Amino acid sequence: MAETTKIKKLSMYDTVMKQFNKTADLIDLNPNIKKILGITNNEIIVHFPVKMDDGKVEVFTGYRVQHNNALGPYKGGLRYHPTIDVEDAKALAMWMTWKTSLAGLPYGGAKGGIKIDPRKYSDAELERITRRLTYALGENIGPEHDIPAPDVNTNAQTMAWIADTYMSTKATSERSQNQHVVTGKPVGTGGLEGRDRATGFGVYFSIKQLVESRDESLKDKTFIVQGFGNVGYWASKFLVEDGAKLLSVQDAHATLFNKDGISVENLYKHSSPRKGSIKGFDGAEEMDPEDFFGLECDIVIPAALGNQITANNAFKIKASIVAEGANGPTDDDGEKILLENGITIIPDILCNSGGVIGSYFEWLQNRNGELWDLDEVMEKLEKKLLKVFKNVQGEVDKSKTDWRTAAYKIAISRIETAYIQRGIFP
Ligand SMILES: NC(=O)C1=CN([C@@H]2O[C@H](COP(=O)(O)OP(=O)(O)OC[C@H]3O[C@@H](n4cnc5c(N)ncnc54)[C@H](OP(=O)(O)O)[C@@H]3O)[C@@H](O)[C@H]2O)C=CC1
Ligand SMILES: O=C(O)CCC(=O)C(=O)O
């Protein structure tokens, strides 16, 4: 059989820059501000040694890219993945700046991580690696300066190790004032009730809003999800609870299909959050990963890595909605094809913003010495998500444009206003 020629994927950085430049032209962004936002403020790369369980020392590479802090401290996740590099971290940091601005939060954007396959290390090694990263980053992070959070392959435990290590570098009397150096911590140690589900809830909520604005309901809508980690699991759980049917799930190890619907809870029990996989689950058939995006369904949710929907597969998508749980899952070429085919993309900076909104609540809770209960958090989260969604929808209707363009216009204009009001560029 003849091999099909694969079209080269754009890098995540190419994609975010194309998105930014397009919006800058559309809104006639002040050229000085365009120069500032078109580059990342700081790119921190650290190499740090850690002793492994067998006594040998390995040297790891960590990144923290701080894109912009015009609206407030840098904010964004830490990713442990073999593919992370400074270019990806730059793109992901820029997306954080747009996301926090769109959500109306007093934050800028950052992202980072460690180039590592965490599956290859024991929990004790991961703890030492995380603590060493924290020391290596030193004052490049801080509760009023740059506040990391969970992302791919990091979780509440990772955040607890960072908080503990960072706080241990402070005088005893100041330690508790530094707890909000990270968000996404375990509830027992300064974490917010509901931060675990906040991103997935936001994905579900934005899909629900879009579907209902078309006078339809989620009942009996079918969906497929790529990635069954924090975001994929919680988004699927909320959607199924509201009557939608999960037809297919893909992770890095397997692609599963069940025409009668996959049980979210059974699949979750089968795959443990970090080292598990959906592979081997007996409630669905395994299928060819190449056929995943082309499945007949109403909604596609990429909730894994960036650059998954490209010119190589976008034309296969039959769903009418792509809800971007992941950051940067659709590259610029893939996006053009989806839009030409009349597919609505709920862009990452809107769709997955529930996570950073939850993080903001946790940060406030810590700063103010408060403890919020789950109902209170979910109520506040829903209210905020609705406001952000309606803002973007209003811009879509007003400008007769796609959702990403509308979201970018709002996000970048807000930052431009902040610079102009300060009078830095009269
Ligand atoms: N956590 C959060 O609060 C937020 C996360 N996001 C974004 O959501 C996405 C997912 O993050 P999160 O759920 O936290 O991460 P997790 O680490 O919890 O889960 C990642 C999931 O993606 C799967 N995956 C990894 N590589 C591939 C691949 N090549 N093909 C298919 N599946 C793959 C993993 O599978 P396996 O287990 O087999 O490796 C796993 O199921 C990321 O893009 C992240 O930036 C956005 C906003 C907030
Ligand atoms: O919760 C946060 O601060 C950021 C989460 C994140 O990394 C993201 O929204 O992509």
Structure description:
The chain is α/β, with parallel strands linked by helices and 426 residues long. It folds into two domains: 40-182, Leucine Dehydrogenase, chain A, domain 1 (Rossmann fold); 196-351, Rossmann fold (3-Layer(aba) Sandwich). It contains 13 helices and twelve strands. It has helices at 12-27, 31-37, 86-102, 123-137, 156-168, 195-213, 230-241, 264-270, 332-340, 348-351, 354-367, 374-399, 403-422; strands at residues 42-51, 57-68, 74-80, 109-114, 146-150, 222-226, 245-250, 255-257, 285-286, 299-302, 321-323, 344-346. The strands form two sheets. The protein has a seven-stranded mixed β-sheet, with helices on both faces. A hairpin with a 5-residue loop joins strand 1 (42-51) and strand 2 (57-68). The longest helix is centred in the last third of the chain and has 26 residues, at 374-399. It is globular and about 55 Å long. The model has no long low-confidence stretch (mean pLDDT 96).
